[in-house]
């Protein structure tokens, strides 16, 4: 399963056309991805048929959110649901670097009927393994996006392998953050990852400001399909 970030309608169309399995729809990729607008979600949903998961992240200051932030996130979840999104992507920590379970429960109440991905906020948590154990208590959290921690993904392969093995696909571990066309095959083989996530690595000049590079995306699809078959 190959998930690709889209920031506009053109991205979404290219992702579907060239073999991407799922879209993570965001704005402000330069900020790590923020909540996209109502209009963008609406138009993307009209133009593609593959699943679209919508980022729910009101700002890039931190993964610690105020009561007002939570209200905004709830309204954005309602919008994503109304417009037919497959799921939402969110993550929330407390001031100690732990999963903010109280506010997570609140957000999950409004995410019913949607697939919920807990994003790479988990890589900023105090203890990745413990954070995964906490999220396993919440069946509505279908997947966790992680690079295995704060270090470069290449240094986190043992942690990723252990996390994937222990999760037993409940939730699914979506590997992303530092994947490239050069390392994706090795990382899938090493960690036994079933799902991978790409952002800038399939863009022109590997830049968050670049358009989707269709040749890179086609090559990536072939690589992922090959290693999955092998």
UniProtKB/TrEMBL annotation:
InterPro entries on file: CutC-like (IPR005627), CutC-like_dom_sf (IPR036822)
Gene3D superfamilies on file: Copper homeostasis (CutC) domain
Gene Ontology CC terms: cytoplasm
Pfam families named among the record's database cross-references: CutC (PF03932)
Keywords for this protein: Cytoplasm
Keyword Cytoplasm listed: yes
A single GO molecular function term of this UniProt record: copper ion binding
Compartmental location: Cytoplasm
Coiled coil stretches, renumbered: none
Protein family according to the UniProt entry: Belongs to the CutC family.
Stated name of the protein: PF03932 family protein CutC
Species of provenance: Sporanaerobacter acetigenes DSM 13106
């Amino acid at each position: 399963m190959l998930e690709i970030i889209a920031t506009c309608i053109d991205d979404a169309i290219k992702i579907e056309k060239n073999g991407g399995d799922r879209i993570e729809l965001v704005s402000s990729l330069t900020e790590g991805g923020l909540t996209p607008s109502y209009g963008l979600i609406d138009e993307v949903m009209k133009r593609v048929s593959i699943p679209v998961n919508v980022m729910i992240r009101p700002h890039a200051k931190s993964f610690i959110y105020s009561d007002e932030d939570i209200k905004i996130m709830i309204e954005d979840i309602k919008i994503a649901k109304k417009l037919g999104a497959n799921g939402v992507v969110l993550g929330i920590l407390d001031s100690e670097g732990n999963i903010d379970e109280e506010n997570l429960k609140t957000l999950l109440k409004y995410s019913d009927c949607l697939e919920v991905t807990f994003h790479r906020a988990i890589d900023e948590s105090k203890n990745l393994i413990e954070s995964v154990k906490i999220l396993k208590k919440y069946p509505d959290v279908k997947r966790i996006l992680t690079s295995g921690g704060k270090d470069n993904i290449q240094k986190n392969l043992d942690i990723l392998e252990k996390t994937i093995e222990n999760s037993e696909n409940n939730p699914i571990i979506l590997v992303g953050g530092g994947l490239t066309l050069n390392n994706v095959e090795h990382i899938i083989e090493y960690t036994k990852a079933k799902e991978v996530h790409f952002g800038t690595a399939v863009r022109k000049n590997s830049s968050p400001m670049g358009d989707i590079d269709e040749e890179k995306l086609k090559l990536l699809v072939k690589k992922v399909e090959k290693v999955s078959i092998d």
